[in-house]
């Protein structure tokens, strides 16, 4: 019976040590995550530590905050290529949509009030990014709101510029010698 107790105690000691090691490891991860979150909240660009996608994400966020929307979208694309975890994908697509939306809004409008072609393109790409974010996280209220806001902006200014009509009509008869 004492051999059985000795083996049981050894097993419990091993399990206790494994549990303690796991607790310490996850505590360290929690601390590292809190430090990174504090850096992100302070607006610092993550240059060392963390995952590659997080470094790209914070760099892109900083670029967007400074109005460099084109480079921010490119850097968010690089963050997508850096294999982020699945829970980060909707946030990256949402931020891509935000930067494209803002990029379209800062474009000048044509004389007739319609958007320039670059703005139309930015809006259509922002729509795709918001829809992708909603496919990945359907209950995201901010993405839904921004998408509806984008739709209202697109409805007002997306008409194509009027083109002058030629006074000459062409028939469907072939031109040239038979």
Automatic annotation (TrEMBL):
Cross-referenced InterPro entries: TPR-like_helical_dom_sf
Gene3D superfamilies per the UniProt record, alphabetical: Tetratricopeptide repeat domain
Domain of life of the organism encoding this protein: Bacteria
Protein name: MxaK protein
Lineage: Bacteria, Pseudomonadati, Pseudomonadota, Betaproteobacteria, Nitrosomonadales
